[in-house]
UniProtKB/TrEMBL annotation:
InterPro entries: Archaeal_FAD_synthase (IPR050385), Cyt_trans-like (IPR004821), Rossmann-like_a/b/a_fold (IPR014729). It comes from the Bacteria. It comes from Labilibaculum filiforme. Residues 3-92 form the Cytidyltransferase-like domain. GO terms for molecular function: nucleotidyltransferase activity. Gene3D superfamilies: HUPs. Transmembrane segments: none annotated. This is Glycerol-3-phosphate cytidylyltransferase. It holds the Pfam family CTP_transf_like. The keyword Transferase applies. Keywords: Nucleotidyltransferase, Transferase.
Length: 126
C-alpha cells in the first residue's frame, strides 16, 4: 500500500492515516513531498525540511519504506513500486488522480491539520 503527504508539522491526523493504512497491508510505502514540490504546489516552503520530515516518517513503526514524492504522478509510483492500493483521507474523494490500483479513503481527523497548526503558530503569511 502507498500513501503520501507533506507531513509538515507532523500531527495526530498524520499518525491516524499511517496506522489505518498499515492495518490493511503487509508493506506500507510512504511518499514524502519534497521541498521543491511543496513550494511548487503550495507557493511556500515547508516549515520542516524534507530530510527531517522523511526521518520522522521513517521512524514510525507503521512505515516500512519512505520515498520522495517529487511530483503528483501517482500512476508512476503505482507502476514503479507495484502498488496494490493507495490510501488517502476522504477529503480527496473525487479529487484524486485516476490510478489502476484500489483506493482506500479514511475519515478525516477532525480539528487537526497542518494548516490549523501553522495558523495557530502564526507561520502562515496572510
Amino acid at each position: 500500500m502507498y500513501t503520501s503527504g507533506c507531513f509538515d508539522l507532523f500531527h495526530y491526523g498524520h499518525l491516524n492515516i499511517l496506522q489505518k493504512s498499515k492495518e490493511l497491508c503487509d508493506y506500507l510505502i510512504v511518499g514524502v513531498s519534497t521541498d521543491e514540490l511543496i513550494l511548487k504546489t503550495k507557493g511556500q516552503k515547508p516549515v520542516i525540511p524534507y530530510e527531517e520530515r522523511a526521518k520522522i516518517i521513517s521512524s514510525i513503526k507503521y512505515v516500512d519504506e519512505v520515498i520522495p514524492q517529487n511530483d503528483k504522478d501517482k500512476q508512476k509510483v503505482v507502476d514503479e513500486h507495484s502498488i496494490d492500493a493507495i490510501s488517502v483521507g476522504d477529503d480527496w474523494r473525487g479529487k484524486y488522480p485516476p490510478v489502476t490500483c484500489e483506493m482506500e479513503y479514511f475519515s478525516y481527523t477532525e480539528s487537526v491539520s497542518s494548516t490549523i497548526l501553522k495558523d495557530t503558530l502564526k507561520l502562515i503569511k496572510k
